[in-house]
Amino acid sequence: MAEGSMERKCAFLLCVLMIYSCSAYRPVVVIHGVWDLRFSLDFLADMIQEEHPGTEVHVIDLLHGWKSLAPLWYQVKTFYAKILPIMQKAENGIILIGYSQGGVLSRGIIESMDHNITRFISLSSPQAGQYGDEFLRLIFPQYIKETAYELFYSKMGQSISVGNYWNDPHHQELYYKYSNYLPYLNNEVDGSYKKDYRKNFLKLEHLILIGGPDDGVITPWQSSHFAYFDENENVTEMRDQYYYRTDTFGLRTLDKAGKVTIYEVPGVIHTFWHHNVTVIQKCILPWLN
Q: pTM of the predicted model, to two decimals?
């Protein structure tokens, strides 16, 4: 009897530990990029659930295809409304993964909305902006990067999501005059929201930035690490950027506290980041707890 009783106790404890282990994972929310199909991020979600059984993974099913070109402030409000009930149920907060444009959109949610997002994983996202022909060919093949500012830096151009983070290094005056999204997230434009944006960004426990030199779409690819072109199209690293040096939205504070991790992964093209097993295993899964 004693031996059987001990076996039952061990089995019970094992079950309790398994339940606790599963429930210890925070819910994960994934936001897709521009032009993505409905099921494009299912591989990532399936792998997270396979490696971390019991994890709630929510791939937000909104604004696909042409709808992904809607203005980003509209998308921020739309996605936030969908994510809010998930956050309200998560006592320990949630983890947010934003792929490509979805990473820039995620930043809008983090900075402008009340949230309990603990970790933000930016997966090949143009956090410092975008300026490249490869990207334009996917959506606006009639334009080249040298002339795209004529469209994007206008009232009509700012009604297109891509225009909201198009950052032409040769027309910075127009960028700051017309762009109604990215310069505001960077707190480079005056407004009453600046303190709130910084405070909300600093709620993050950790920021994970993933990108690589063979991306082929994000231009410069270092934008995924908050680096960007100067006026001569030489890349200025994150820590030399004005918004980092002056800590406009809290990036420097997070970095100095050891809360920013940067992954540079060669050999991955843009459309395969969320299908690459090595990227998921080494750059994403370790942060999902």
A: 0.91
